[in-house]
């Protein structure tokens, strides 16, 4: 059985990640997310405090994520956004774990903070707005909205 690590914040990104659940149905999974009422209810969840721009918290998150990845041994990591994905994706790159990033922010014409970093790190990089193809370059693949119907050209 394959194992997937699911990484998101606690609000909209989590909603979009849960919309993708049929895609990883039957796989063993674990979550890595910010601590909130919505994430504490998730099965197999590792939750951390939401302090993404505190340098000490970032270093501590690298240590926590390294331990999680070493213990969980996922076959893939998937994130729908949030800066929380940066430490796991960087460590996954070093550990040879494939990664999939789906840019789900509300930005239509400008790159997100996380996207500007992970476009260079993620093995697969998807966007929901066609305007972002110019911003992120050829690595970005347009798939449309996760919660609306897929465009004819992608399905």
Summary, kept brief:
It is built from six helices and seven strands, in the order βαβαβαβαβαβαβ. With 155 residues, it is of the alpha/beta class.
- The CATH architecture would be 3-Layer(aba) Sandwich
At the fourth CATH level, what is the homologous superfamily?
Glycogen Phosphorylase B
Q: Any idea what the radius of gyration is?
A: 15 Å
Number of helices: 6
What does the overall shape look like? globular
Helix content: 25-40%
> N-to-C terminal Cα separation, in Å?
26 Å
Q: How would you characterize the largest beta sheet?
A: 7 strands, parallel
In CATH, what is the class?
Answer: Alpha Beta
Approximate strand percentage = 15-25%
Uncertain spans: none
* Element-level helix/strand string: EHEHEHEHEHEHE
Mean pLDDT: 87
- Across the major sheet, the strand order is 3-2-1-4-5-6-7
CATH topology: Rossmann fold
Walk me through what this model shows:
By secondary structure, the chain is an alpha/beta fold. It has a single domain (3-142), classed as Rossmann fold (3-Layer(aba) Sandwich). Helix content is 33%, strand content 21%. The protein is built from six helices and seven strands. It has helices at 12-19, 37-40, 55-72, 86-95, 113-118, 132-136, and strands at residues 3-8, 28-34, 45-48, 76-79, 99-103, 124-127, 140-142. Strands 3-2-1-4-5-6-7 form a seven-stranded parallel sheet, with helices on both faces. Helix 4 links the parallel strand 4 and strand 5. Helix 3 packs across helix 4. The longest helix is centred in the middle third of the chain and has 18 residues, at 55-72. The two termini are 26 Å apart. The model has no long low-confidence stretch (mean pLDDT 87).
């Amino acid at each position: 059985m394959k194992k997937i690590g699911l990484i998101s914040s606690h609000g909209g990104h989590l909603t979009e990640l849960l919309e993708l659940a049929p895609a990883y149905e039957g796989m063993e999974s674990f979550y890595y997310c910010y601590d909130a009422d919505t994430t504490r209810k998730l099965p197999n969840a590792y939750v951390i405090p939401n302090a993404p721009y505190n340098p000490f918290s970032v270093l501590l998150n690298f240590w926590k994520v390294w331990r999680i990845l070493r213990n969980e041994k996922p076959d893939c990591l998937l994130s729908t956004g949030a800066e929380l994905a940066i430490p796991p994706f960087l460590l996954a790159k070093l550990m040879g774990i494939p990664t999939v990033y789906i840019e789900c922010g509300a930005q239509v014409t400008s790159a997100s903070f996380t996207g500007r970093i992970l476009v260079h790190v993620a093995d697969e990089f998807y966007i929901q707005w066609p305007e972002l193809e110019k911003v992120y370059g050829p690595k970005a693949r347009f798939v449309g909205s996760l919660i609306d119907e897929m465009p004819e050209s992608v399905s």
